[in-house]
Amino acid sequence: MSISDRIQQSQWVPLLRSNDNIYFAPVIPNKKLQGAMTYLPHGVNPNEVLILIDDTVFGSAKVGMCLTAKGLFYKANFEDEQVYLFEHIQRVEADIGMITSSILINGQDELNFTQLDKGVVRTLVAFLNECCQGRQGTIINIDAGMQIMIDLFAYFITFSAGQWNTRSRDAVFDHFTKLNDEAVHQYVEKLLNEQMGFDYEDLLHRLAELKDRLAYNFRREMIEQLVYAMVLGQVEQNQADLFMTHLCRVTNVSRAVFPDLVKIIYQCMAGEINQKKASELTDEQLQACKLLEIQPEVLNEQTLQAAYREKMADFHPDKYQSLPESVRQLIEQQAQQLNQARAVLKIYLGV
Fold first, then answer.
1. Displacement of CA 66 from its chain's centroid (Å)
2. Could you give the C-alpha distances from 18 to 12, 35, 101, 344, in angstroms and in order?
3. 82 φ, ψ to 5°?
4. Nearest to 125 by CA among 100, 97, 107, 102
5. How does residue 265 score in pLDDT terms, banded at 50, 70 and 90?
6. Are 346 and 335 a contacting pair, CB within 8 Å?
7. Where are the beta strands (DSSP E) in the chain?
8. pLDDT tens digits, one per residue of 273-290
């Protein structure tokens, strides 16, 4: 599907069209195109511009961004022009500040916009990610409601660790591949392969934009599923309660519908998760837990680090400098065993 086709079909374009600083072909004013030509590379024809963003105060369009079928062309005040081809863009994220709102290309290059409000920037980010997905391979025609559900689920699964690991990947894969939906399977596979990251404020904005198109029962079930994801992601219960409050507010579902949902799910899942965690450990991993004096049910990155530090404090070389060589060797061997035990459990936890 071409970029032009995606513009015609995108759910985000109507929101972008409503902004006074964003223009879509074929009704981009000539004055705006002439201004943009001051930063567009030689060889780019004005007729190739599909979207123009004028980020100037007085409307000259000499600063801003143009989108063509090939990529993005950006110019900020007092800075050189920048070009980002779609084939080189892996992800686009929102970076919302107090004064300006920006988008991040591949997590590093910042494109600032002074004339676009925060909501428009988030919508622009969602649209650009659609464009990049379309250029990078097979288009996944996933339902918008299911996509935001998966994205939020993945966000909560990875929240505590701050990144993907083996356990979070397995949790997302196991949860959604149970659904008999090929588009969902493809999207989850893409999400895991690219280890996609998400901005929480952007996710809430996307959910708010979609809520009127989502059935009430779907919104209720979504919140229940996302609390489940928070448990799997080892989000603290107080933080999960705050997240749930956000979700209820954004989706227009009353908190009163879910009496003690977070508390109940956390209590029910705690025993199940701990029992499963203990039963799935190998003999080597159980021996490592025993050596570090960690109960398998409470094994996580934090308890592992704390137990390791406590144990290693007893084996600091400075404490044994005056002891015979044979004793020091025994102590060093014990320290090596602790290091090996820690390495075994880190591999298991995927950290």
1. 26
2. 11, 21, 18, 55
3. -130, 145
4. 102
5. confident
6. no
7. 22-24, 51-54, 64-67, 71-75, 82-85, 92-96, 101-105, 109-113
8. 555 555 678 888 889 988
